Every structure is written in C-alpha cells, then in structure tokens.
UniProtKB/TrEMBL annotation:
Protein name: Exodeoxyribonuclease III
CDD domains in UniProt: Nape_like_AP-endo
Family: Belongs to the DNA repair enzymes AP/ExoA family.
Residue ranges the record marks as coiled coil: none
Cofactor names: Mg(2+)
InterPro entries the record matches: AP_endonuc_1 (IPR004808), Endo/exonu/phosph_ase_sf (IPR036691), Endo/exonuclease/phosphatase (IPR005135), ExoIII-like (IPR037493)
Pfam families named in the record: Exo_endo_phos (PF03372)
Amino acid sequence: MTISTVNVNGLRAAAKKEPGFSDWLAASSADVVCLQEVRAEASQLPSEVVDPDGWHVVLAPAEAKGRAGVAVYSRVEPDAVRVGFGEAEFEGAGRYLEADFGRVSVASLYLPSGEVGTERQDEKERFMKAFLPYLVRRRAEVEAQGRDLVVCGDWNIAHREADLKNWRGNVKNSGFLPEERAWMDRVFGEAGYVDVVRGLFPDQEGPYSWWSYRGRAFDNDTGWRIDLVCATPGIANRAVEAHVERAASHAERWSDHAPVTVVFGV
C-alpha cells in the first residue's frame, strides 16, 4: 500500500499551475492520497480535480469559506468515511477526515497553524488538547479489530532539531515551541504512534517538506519537516520506502509543501 500526503495550499490554485496538482496526481503511484488546505468545495473545483479518472474522492471542506479543508483520494472506494474526531469545535473545520480501506484506516489531518500570542495559537492548543485523547482511543479501537491507522498530513509542528534547518531561530515561534514538541513526544510515547519517515531516516536532517515562498528558502533547502505520516506500530513496521517528492526547481512548485510518499509492504 502506497500513501501520499500533501498540503496543496489551495487546490484551485494548485490545479491551475503548469505543472500542477493534476499532473502530479496522474503520474502518482499512490493507492491513497491525503490532501490538506484544500480551501474549496466540490462545486468550486473542475471535474478533472473533483472527479479524476481512476480515483474516488472524498472532500471535507471547512464551513468557513476559503479556509482549511481536507480530502482523501483513493483508487478504491472507502468502506466507510468519518469527518471530524468528535470535538464539536472542530467538526466543521475541515481539519480531519478518516477513511477505511480493509484492514487499514487512513486519515488526512490539517492541524491548525499558530502564531504566538494570538487566538490562532489558542485554537491550535485547544485542537491538540482534544486530538491526543482521540489518537489514544482510536488506536485502541483499530487494534482491537486487528486493524491499523495511518494519520497523514500537515501537523504544523517540527518535532526535533533535525526537522527544521534553522531551529535555533525558531525556538520561540509556533511550530517549534517546547510545549508543541512535548505534545509530539506524547503522540509517539503515550499514544504509541510511529513517525514513519523518521523511523526510516533516523539520522538524517529533514527530509524537509515545506519551504517558505520568501527569499531563497527552497533553493537553499531551508525547510521544515511538518508533513508527517504517523501510524500505529503494526503497519509502521511494514514501511519499506519513503521519499519527499521535491520539485526539480522553484518554478515547478505547485505548493509551498511537497508530497510525502510512503510505501508499506505486505
């Protein structure tokens, strides 16, 4: 099973670029693709994006127009789909979508970005506080059924110093705050999930998946690794390959994020 995840930074814009999202999807070898920051409803998207040949598409747009939104594209129709994770504040926020495929559930997560000292950071902290118990509970549920869960997406937190180029300059910024990193410790400790890409590349800087459009961040590879594939141990232990699908040049980027793809063996 091959799973890709990418924050598209606005699906309408990403689809209009050449090369763009549709070109990437047509060439993808993934079985399941998770999208974040879709920022559109189905009626606002062209048919080749919302109903592409060979794909089943489930969208979970945000009630707030032009914000957030997640999606799951899959080669086969999901057995079941769930939007949200049971927290009323975030049910219509376009932040979480989970789909079942046989013995594996795959979720697309767009954890809120924050900014220190603002309501955005408060929202991020409320989300984190509510989401961790869900991860604990959901892991217990799927494993009791002999199944696994893969939570892909833009987690908006760099867990370790190796996960961002300029970590010294970001210790007081949202995305690398000590309390956010401690929360990720709990995701991998208390909740027992595995950071699949880090598991395959334990000693590597990065590989980064997001670069600011400002300056020469992309050209200099001054990036962040915030697009994560986190999985319950059963399937995480079957990961055999992972890579970031980094554009060949700045001009060929169709998002400020790059797709992260993981291949799981039988």
